What we know:
Elements: H1 4-15, E1 22-38, E2 41-59, E3 62-68, H2 74-88, E4 102-105, H3 118-133, E5 138-156, E6 161-179, E7 182-192, H4 203-215, E8 225-231, H5 233-245, H6 250-254, H7 257-262, E9 276-279, E10 300-305, E11 308-309, H8 316-321, E12 330-331, E13 340-341, E14 345-348, H9 355-360, E15 364-377, E16 380-392, E17 395-400, E18 403-408, H10 409-414, E19 416-419, E20 424-426, E21 431-433, E22 436-439, E23 442-445, E24 448-457
Parallel strand pairs: 4-6, 8-15, 14-23
Antiparallel strand pairs: 1-2, 1-5, 2-3, 5-6, 6-7, 8-24, 9-10, 9-14, 10-11, 12-13, 15-16, 16-17, 16-18, 18-24, 19-24, 20-23, 21-22
Helix pairs in contact: 3-4
Amino acid sequence: MPDIDTIARSLAGQLKQPRADYSEARLEESQTSHITYRGKGLESIGRATASGGNVRALVKGGWGFTSFNSFDKVSDRVTLALEQAQSAGSGKSKLAEVEPAVDEVPSGVAKNPVEIPLAEKKHLLDEYNEIIWSIPQIQTSTIGYSDSRKKVVFLNSEGSFITQERADVGLRLTAIAAKDGEVQQVGLSLGSLGDFGAIEGLHDKISEMARHAVELLTAPQAKGGEYTVVLDPVLAGVFVHEAFGHLSESDFVYENDRMRKIMKLGKLFGVKQLNIVDSAAEPGLRGSYKYDDEGVRAVKTYLIREGKLVGRLHSRETAAKMKEKPTGNARAINYCYPPIVRMTNTYIEPGNVSFDEMIADIKEGIYAKNWYGGMTSMEMFTFSAGETYMIRNGKIAEALRPVMLTGNVFSTLKNIDAIGNDLDMNQGGGCGKGVQMPLPVSNGSPHIRIQQCLVGGM
Length: 458
């Protein structure tokens, strides 16, 4: 079978047929491996390869889309996408203009993580699982490891022809302790842009994770109410991603009249020191790339700058509809899906306050670290911290059982009154939207202090 570069070149002329306002193709070859544990036992282990592609066509504002995992008669797929678009279209096609690109982008990793022997990976994870189970009162545990390497060729009717390779590594561990009907859990999530070394040498961290799960069984519970709350970079990063980042995805904003009014550019959302960014152009992070899945060059996009809403995330279509610049945020989890507006690396930029200064004048407050789970509904959010401590008279005091933070994202942003100088990026986990999950992203923040934050016990 011809390689995907050869197949892509054969499609280039057909995509330029005049019956479509615009057309594109995306061809992929991927390798993946995974290892999962449930409790003491290995649940699943394996390696897989896949190849396939898709074609999209735009006619009079209507899209046609077809995906396939066989490269036989690929030219027929172009015809099918065109016919679908002709059936759907009845208006005017709108796409923001971008400069066509011809480029080859390597993965940037010296060693393909998928090619590391499964036995070597399993040996490391066996060690991690044994550490968890060496701690008394651990009831059960989970470990999920995955890696991938993907080659994607993108071409369109405007002359773009881009080959990109990327690799990814992800690891999530959870230790669950139980005693006398009480159950507590602590998790650890890590990842990298293909560097297996990022998940090695975690023995001490995993021991600490499991021990903390046991300690929480006897930890006191916070009294519910409003507190001054300090979030660590992990939880603050999850907050900015889940509670604010999704509201900045312009397909959501464009289709919702209420959110278009709320998310009006120029609106004041926080203190002057507050800057929120989404950028796939940051080097070496899980959400990083040179071109998105529409062939648009990645850029650094300020969503909030000096407290004001100044931008949002776009595909070419949403940018044209909202008369704004494309941002390179059209992403698809694989060839089975069309690209939609997604975040990449989303973070709060650092300020100039040290952690000690941030907590120094707090008489009684909450220090919330890590993440356990959460949900959002429009501008309302609920997040569970993975670790919680009391702050008393400017010092970190006793550990508490995990707490739940609840509020309105816009009120909460305005209540941020101190931003730390210690930006850190969390590369664990993945983002979900629609049925496309988990998409590799990263999020981060310095420590932040929030006044009048509603806290409840779990």
